[in-house]
Write a structure and sequence with these properties.
globular; transferase activity; five-stranded parallel beta sheet; alpha/beta; Oxidized Rhodanese, domain 1; 7 strands; 149 residues; two-stranded antiparallel sheet
């Protein structure tokens, strides 16, 4: 009988798992949840595209604001509203621009989450994007109540 590769490292207790998973959800948002909030006009969040201005103009999440992580300084961050929760994104899991942006925001005292999978996962889920310098408006379409996961 062979030993389980999964169980080679036993899982933590249920209470430890619950705490860790709750914390994980505090740090990340997925494309479905962000799309749902944008479609509903939730004003408590601001989606920040942390890629370059050129990449933003080529295509970005509808309603996202361009704020390249390389331009985040004490001076530029001081223009943000500390009552909002900022959701950062970049190209995808191979890009750490959203992490760098989120770190700068958190270090400056802002509440922040990262979008899992960035623009790549957003596009895979077929959520709307727009082009140009403006954030763009969320399209007048209804979203299903759940994503099936």
């Amino acid at each position: 009988m062979s030993q389980s590769a999964v169980l080679q490292f036993p899982p933590p207790s249920a209470a430890t798992s619950e705490a860790w998973l709750r914390d994980k959800l505090a740090y990340y948002a997925d494309a479905w949840d962000v799309a749902q909030d944008l479609a509903r006009g939730i004003s408590d969040i601001v989606v920040l595209d942390t890629r370059s201005a050129e990449q933003y103009q080529a295509g970005h999440i509808c309603g996202a604001v361009s704020f390249p992580h390389r331009t985040m300084t004490a001076e530029t961050l001081s223009q943000l509203n500390s009552d909002k929760v900022y959701v950062t994104y970049c190209d995808g899991i191979g890009c750490n621009g959203s992490t760098k942006g989120a770190w700068k925001l958190a270090a400056a005292g802002f509440r922040v989450k990262e979008l899992i999978g960035g623009l790549d996962f957003w596009l895979r889920d077929r959520h709307p994007v727009t082009q140009g310098e403006a954030a763009g408006e969320w399209p007048a379409q209804t979203m299903p109540e759940d994503c099936g996961c």
